[in-house]
Amino acid sequence: MAPKRRAAGHSQTTPAGNEKLLQSTTTRTVATFLFTLVAAVILGIFLRPTAQPGNSHEDSPHSRLLSEHAFVVRDLPGRGKGAIAARDIQQGELLVREPPLVLLPSAVTASPNQLIVEALSRLSPEGVEIFYNLSYVRVPENLPPAQFAERVPLAIFETNAVAAGSNVGLFPTMARLNHGCSHSFNSVYSWRETEGVLTVHALKAIKKGEELLTAYFDTRRPRHERRQHLKQVYDFHCTCPSCALPDKQSRVSDARLVKMSGLQAKLPSWAEGKLDGRDAIQVVRELWSLGDAEGYTSGRGRLAADAVYVAAAHSDRHGVIGWAELGVKWATYELGGDSELAEELRRTAAEPSSHPMWGRQASMQVGGPDGSATAA
Ligand SMILES: [Zn+2]
User: Fold this and answer.
1) Which of 98, 250, 284, 368 has the fewest CB atoms in 10 Å of its CB?
2) Is the pTM here over 0.70, yes or no?
3) What is the DSSP string of 272-307?
4) What's the CA-to-centroid distance between 361 and ligand 1, angstroms?
5) How far is the CA of 261 from the centre of ligand 1 (A)?
6) How far is the CA of 44 from the centre of ligand 1 (A)?
7) What is the pLDDT of residue 65?
8) pLDDT band at 96 (very low <50, low <70, confident <90, very high)
9) Which residue has the higher pLDDT, 9 or 192?
10) How confident is the model at residue 61 (pLDDT cuts 50, 70, 90)?
11) What spatial distance separates the first Cα and last Cα of the chain, rounded to whole Å?
């Protein structure tokens, strides 16, 4: 079996690799948005995977339809299926926009298996075929046929589903994207609650013939931990370009990723009064520059929104505008120009004092992305 997978860069997401997903877990992305208020409302980016053990068959009509122009789903030697760019793709392009084939609450009291079986009974024959064309992991091949058949539906769901607001959804097209860590993923998926669809955008420019990769979880951690997680949840050994780096370069990359993760975790201490506004903005700048060095650019719309939050609280008009404009640019790449985050940042850039945090803390020039802290 050689499953694949993917995730929110920052977008974090929640892979559905285990039963917990359906039981309690609020599969939310952990992605750290610190300032939950604003952020949380805005969106959830998730990740997820796909696998392709021996049960993958031909591309479904569903996938072909949705992926026609930008990419094709193809068998990859020794690696199951993957999505390959059929032409050059520009940064920020919308690649997939699809409703869930199956959507279940993330917290359930009934047997998850039963829920899946019921959900399948409501699908059209074509939908059922699409479902069974998806891959799965962790169902022993040597089970008696009846038991095997009983376990496969849940295994498919767990291997491929991703968080969708307070639910967990199965999105067959997006499920064809394999996973890449750190600088390797070039596509990000996110759930749009108001529209009830999952979108996938090109985080980076992608050349014709390159594979589209997404991140199934927050990969800002060392290679051995990433691999351990992927093995545990999706049962595959990651050989993405980031994981395939020579040891020396991998250690440098790991150090950056760990530092990024630590800085991200430090940001909320501003809200607790342990970090002043300038220091919080400095943390954001460091994250930004480490991301440049690593090639990790996911989550920047949200990161800029966090900086806006700080700048607004300290009534730094110049800072708010600078970060909000930068945030619009990155949110547009990753989530779309019509995403809630992009729209919210656009409104804030136009009228900084409309931000809900405006003036909540002592006035301070915290500075914009360019490092300047000139008075507004
Ligand atoms: Zn990897």
Assistant:
1) 250
2) yes
3) TTSS-HHHHHHHHHHHHHHHHHHT--TTHHHHHHHH
4) 41
5) 16
6) 22
7) 43
8) very high
9) 192
10) very low
11) 58
Q: Nearest CA to 15 among 26, 3, 7?
A: 7
CB distance 85 to 70 below 8 Å: yes
pLDDT value at position 62?
Answer: 45
Domains of the chain, by residue range, sit at 20-234, 247-354
Q: What is the pLDDT of residues 144-182, one digit of tens each?
A: 999 999 999 999 999 999 999 999 999 999 999 999 999
Q: What is the pLDDT of residue 240?
A: 97
CA 20 to ligand 1 centroid distance, Å: 23
Nearest-CA neighbor of 12 among 40, 31, 27?
Answer: 31
Domain range 20-234, its CATH number among 3.40.50.720, 2.170.270.10, 3.30.70.1340, 1.10.10.60: 2.170.270.10
Cβ(55)–Cβ(136) below 8 Å: yes
One DSSP character per residue, 89-140 reads: B-TT-EEEEE--SEEEESS-SS-HHHHHHHHHHTS-HHHHHHHHHS------
Cα(241) to ligand 1 centroid in Å equals 7
What is the Å distance from ligand 1's center to 228 Cα? 10
Q: Calculate the average pLDDT of the chain.
A: 84
268 C-alpha to ligand 1 centroid (Å): 28
For ligand 1, the distance from its centroid to the CA atom of residue 135, given in whole angstroms, is 19
The residue type of 193 is E
- Measured in angstroms, how far is the CA atom of residue 192 from the centroid of ligand 1? 27
How many angstroms does the Cα of residue 189 sit away from the middle of ligand 1? 18
> Does residue 372 carry a pLDDT above 80?
no
The DSSP annotation for 314-367 comes to TT-HHHHHHHHHHHHHHHHHHH-TTSHHHHHHHHHHH-GGGSTTTTSS------
Q: What is the CA radius of gyration of the chain?
A: 21
